[in-house]
Write a structure and sequence with these properties.
Blueprint: H1 4-17, H2 25-36, H3 42-52, H4 62-83, E1 87-88, E2 91-92, H5 94-97, H6 100-118, H7 126-150, H8 158-183, H9 188-215, H10 218-221, H11 227-230, H12 236-244, H13 247-258, H14 264-278, H15 280-300, H16 310-319
Antiparallel strand pairs: 1-2
Helix pairs in contact: 1-3, 1-4, 2-6, 3-4, 3-8, 4-6, 7-8, 8-9, 9-15
Length: about 325
């Protein structure tokens, strides 16, 4: 079996080798740019690890694994445009480096390329792979729409938030796992359990993102700490702070959310203090641990020898132990 590090190198080499020989190049250069600026490649690595549970030639599904990475980066390209984000992974976003129209059109083309690359999956499993990919893409759009709608609501529940992140983030990790299993000829039962494993890992991973945005270290987390607080983003942290706060705490939280003129560091410090007083930090850590433990149950039910699961277990554990 191959290690996650070896698979990552193979994925990056494959992505770097993808040809862009159609014209105009002004349409395709932003796509090449987006795929060249790095990223953890979590989704293609998970797909290859799932396949490698059953078969020894994971390189056979590199096209479909990189199709999923193409699709993921397409969603980021459009998310950045909708969020007016200036940077991604330390580089200018496409709408900043080029313009909004280029971001829309190159993004649309990127989605088509993802389907073209997905068509290179193991031929006998193409109908099943295509159905799964299309259903997942629809769910991700639904999750993004919920996220947009939450911005104008002050009554979002924890249950609604969990469902939103399941759709927006988690199902793509689940899809990667199931797609690898399908193309390896795994049983339907194993494919479902691997999907559920990826789904639970995805929930834990996104909740960890919420937590690290408040309590992380910018140098190791790779993002500005407190960005969600400054933008009043409806995260697990903020939703539960509202739900659990007493009258005085809710009034103070409201004042920071509604204030238009503020010192950024003062707001981050004040909201973080409120989170600490209310116990949101512990709540988030407990929820992350819950989903991670749930994921282990689904992986345990997969019918392959435990030693073959070791690399996937280690990779999942590494995902859940990002530095503060």
């Amino acid at each position: 079996m191959k290690t996650a590090e070896v698979l990552l190198r193979e994925i990056n080499a494959y992505i770097d080798s993808l040809p862009y020989d159609r014209k105009p190049m002004s349409l395709y250069e932003p796509i090449r740019y987006v795929l060249s600026i790095g990223g953890k490649r979590i989704r293609p690595v998970l797909m290859l690890l799932a396949y490698n549970l059953y078969k020894e030639d994971p390189e056979r599904i590199l096209p479909s694994a990189c199709a999923l990475e193409t699709y993921h980066n397409y969603t980021l390209l459009h998310d950045d445009l909708m969020d007016h984000a200036p940077m991604r992974r330390g580089h200018q976003t496409v709408h900043e480096r080029w313009d909004a129209n280029t971001a829309i059109l190159s993004g649309d083309t990127m989605l088509v390329l993802a389907y073209e690359r997905m068509a290179q999956c193991v031929p006998e499993y193409f109908p099943e792979v295509l159905r799964l990919f299309t259903e997942t893409a629809l769910e991700i759009g639904e999750g993004q729409q919920y996220d947009i709608e939450f911005e104008t609501r002050d009554d979002v529940t924890e249950e609604e938030y969990i469902e939103m992140i399941r759709l927006k983030t988690s199902v793509l990790l689940a899809c990667a796992m199931k797609m690898g299993a399908i193309q390896a000829g795994a049983s339907a039962e194993d494919a479902v359990n691997l999907y559920r494993f990826g789904e639970q890992i995805g929930l834990a991973f996104q909740l960890q993102d919420d937590y690290l945005d408040v309590y992380g270290d910018a140098a190791t987390f790779g993002k500005r700490i407190g960005g969600d607080i400054l933008s009043n983003k409806k995260t697990y942290m903020l939703i539960n702070a509202y739900n659990k706060a007493n009258t005085a705490q809710r009034a103070e939280l409201d004042s920071w959310i509604q204030r238009k003129d503020f010192n950024e560091q003062d707001k981050i410090a004040a909201v973080t203090r409120l989170y600490n007083e209310i116990g949101i930090d512990k709540m988030a850590l407990d929820k992350i641990a819950y989903y991670f433990e749930q994921s282990k149950k689904y992986l345990a039910a997969v019918h392959v020898p435990e030693e073959r699961k070791a690399e996937l277990k280690a990779y999942a554990a590494k995902m859940m132990h990002r530095e503060k």
